[in-house]
Amino acid sequence: MVSDRKIVVYIAMSVDGYIAGQGGNMSFLSIVEEAGQDYGYGDFAETVDTVIMGRKTYDWVMTQVSEFPHASKETYIVTRTPQTSIGNINFFNGSLKSLIAQLKSLPGKDIFVDGGAEIVNELLKDELVDEFIISVIPVLLGEGVRLFHTGKPEQNLRLKNTSQYDKGLVQLHYIRRSKPIV
Predict the structure, then answer these.
(1) What pLDDT, on the 0 to 100 scale, is given for residue 66?
(2) Given CA atoms 45, 51, 53, 57 in this order, what sign does their dihedral have?
(3) Can you point out the beta strands (E) in the chain?
(4) How many CB atoms lie within 10 A of CB 53?
(5) What is the Cα–Cα distance from 3 to 6, expressed in whole angstroms?
(6) Could you read off the pLDDT of 78-97 as tens digits, one per residue?
(7) Structural domains of the chain, ranges and CATH numbers in brackets
(8) Across the chain, which distance is largest between two alpha carbons, in Å?
(9) Mean pLDDT value across residues 160-181
(10) All residues at 6 or more sequence positions from 152 whose CB lies less than 8 Å from its CB, including other chains
């Protein structure tokens, strides 16, 4: 039995489509930092109980904080190197497609894909992403890690919502259409 759980990519990128600058630098995210403003993340976090994240993203997050921000959620860090779990953090080195099938067969809330680009693009190749919430940061990086790579099937999206904020961040919420637009 397949549940109604959705795979949701919630991520930030520059106007020119990069989720990290040269050398994986994500300092550009600080451009929109504002006391008391989480850009809807708190509300979004309540809709998910599982997180999938690439190891490089995990490593970067752990250099920024003293405690893993998703510690209360079942988390899968996709890595090529087997590692021992730490609490709810599972280091996963199997088939991402199989992991998604397993998670979607279980009851629960939605599944949050928190980067990076390799994970997002692997999911897109198998057409496994149901929704995108993309925060566009008002900067052109010029180079770095692109969110979207070539070589994936065309996928039609429907705009569900947009939000704009004082610091120039624009948030786009798209839902994947089940059938192509004719």
Answers:
(1) 86
(2) positive
(3) 7-14, 18-20, 48-54, 74-78, 89-92, 110-113, 131-137, 145-146, 157-164, 170-176
(4) 25
(5) 9
(6) 999 989 999 999 999 999 99
(7) 7-176 (3.40.430.10)
(8) 50
(9) 90
(10) 121, 124, 125
Q: Position 81: which residue type?
A: T
Decide if 118 contacts 54 (C-beta within 8 A): yes
Q: What is the enclosing helix (H) or strand (E) of 100?
A: helix 96-104
**Mean pLDDT computed over every residue of the chain:** 94
Give the integer Cα–Cα distance in Å for 75 and 177: 27
Alpha carbon distance 12, 147 (integer Å): 9
Q: Are 131 and 174 in contact (CB under 8 A)?
A: yes
Burial grade of 112 (CB within 10 A; 0-12, 13-18, 19 or more): buried
CB atoms within 10 A of CB 157: 15
